[in-house]
Design goal:
Layout lengths: L1 E6 L4 E8 L3 E9 L6 H19 L3 E5 L7 H20 L3 E5 L1 H9 L6 H11 L3 H6 L4 H15 L2
Parallel strand pairs: 1-4, 4-5
Antiparallel strand pairs: 1-2, 2-3
């Protein structure tokens, strides 16, 4: 099974591609220009993920369920990205799974109230080569995407 883990955003989109090992096949951040039109940013996100899904023959897309924070506009824009992922899951016939942040933390850290640092530390135990990246400041968009992807692999 190949899983695409995504930490959605409209400026930074973290992602990882994992196999059932779990082995990281690819990970990174799609970085978008703040002054670009939203429709152009969404088009770039769509094209990047379409390419990844085709290249790796992704079986499952795993995403974090957003929570409504202080800014409803951000929540709405995250919905656009999530909508793109649902469209891609339909187009490429792969499943989509959503997990709330507390559930992801529970699977990765062992408690639903872990911090981003706790998640990064636990991921280093799963992926020892990640230690140097975390030590030198890997973006949390990537570690969040990895946590979502691993949860997607482990949760049945």
């Amino acid at each position: 099974m190949i899983i695409l883990g995504v930490d959605p955003g409209t400026l930074f989109v973290g992602f990882c591609v994992l196999d059932k090992g779990p082995t990281i096949l690819e990970s990174g951040v799609i970085t978008l220009k703040r002054n670009a039109l939203l429709q152009n940013r969404l088009g770039i996100i769509y094209e990047c993920f379409a390419d990844i899904i085709e290249r790796y023959e992704v079986d499952v897309i795993a995403i974090e369920t957003p929570f409504l924070g202080k800014n409803p506009t951000v929540y709405l824009k995250l919905g656009y990205v999530r909508g793109l992922l649902y469209l891609l899951s339909h187009k490429y016939n792969c499943a989509i799974r959503e997990y709330p942040p507390s559930e992801i933390k529970k699977y990765i850290v062992g408690t639903g109230s872990g911090t981003k640092e706790d998640v990064a530390f636990a991921l280093c135990k799963i992926f020892p080569l990640l230690r140097n990246a975390v030590k030198f400041g890997i973006r949390t968009d990537i570690t969040d995407a990895l946590a979502v992807g691993v949860t997607g692999l482990w949760k049945k």
